Amino acid sequence: MDTKLLEGCPLFAGCSREEIRRMLGCLGASEQQFNAGQMLLAAGSPVERMGLVLEGGVHIQISDVWGNVSILDRAGPGQMFAETYACLPGQRLMVDVVAAQPTRTLFLQAGGLLSPCRESCGCHHRLIANLLTVSAQKNLALSRRIFHTAPKTIRGRLLSYLSYQARQAGSREFAIPFDRQQLADYLGVERSALSAELGKMQREGLLQTKKNHFSLFAPMSE
């Protein structure tokens, strides 16, 4: 594959194109494509490979036996998934990984990263350090979701999530990576109740929204 696409990925940060090419061989890299809604990895299955999104995006989600879905996180281009499980031999996946849209991924054998490289190449050590950074960032992402779902009300959850998105964008106008159903699943609420609360917040002049675009406004003084 074209290694230029991987140069900007956090996992390969600090590695040259030639080093990336060699490491893809060490890691038994294989590329796959998935349609929107297609399952990449299923809960309960053992995982030996970690995934890296090249194009599109995936949702990390859990489902109960009644079909209720909660989205825990999203991985977009350059981001990884299932790396924690792949680094723990025999550990079965607790989540589903589902394509949020047409998606192209690169799967990498975790054993090739954790075992000493025969060539003792510097890039191998950088990848291990980069993987630790990626894992730390994932922990932060899960912590953020806990913060967003901690409020008891739908409005409280929306205010927490939208405030964070505004801070990340550096603006009160921004787009989020979820549609309405996905946002409801992420915040752990019913879609109809979420839509009703957003409508109420718009009427109160707190925000405007169209699809996944939001504009936030300061509350009007009385």
Short précis:
This protein is of the alpha+beta class. The chain has seven helices and eleven strands. The protein has a four-stranded antiparallel β-sheet. The chain has a four-stranded antiparallel β-sheet with strand order 2-7-4-5.
Describe this structure as you would to a colleague.
The structure is a single chain. The chain is of the alpha+beta class. The chain is 38% helix and 23% strand. It has a 4-stranded antiparallel β-sheet with strand order 1-8-3-6. Strand 4 and strand 5 form a beta hairpin. The model has no long low-confidence stretch (mean pLDDT 90).
* Largest beta-sheet details: 4 strands, antiparallel
What fraction, in percent, of the residue positions are helical?
25-40%
Low-confidence stretches: none
Structural class: alpha+beta
The ordered string of helix (H) and strand (E) elements is HEEEEEEHEEHHHEHHEE
* DSSP strand count: 11
Shape category: elongated
State the oligomer: single chain
Mean pLDDT: 90
What is the CA-atom radius of gyration, in angstroms?
20 Å
Q: Please, how many helices?
A: 7
Into which percentage range does the β-strand content fall? 15-25%
Strand order of the largest sheet: 1-8-3-6
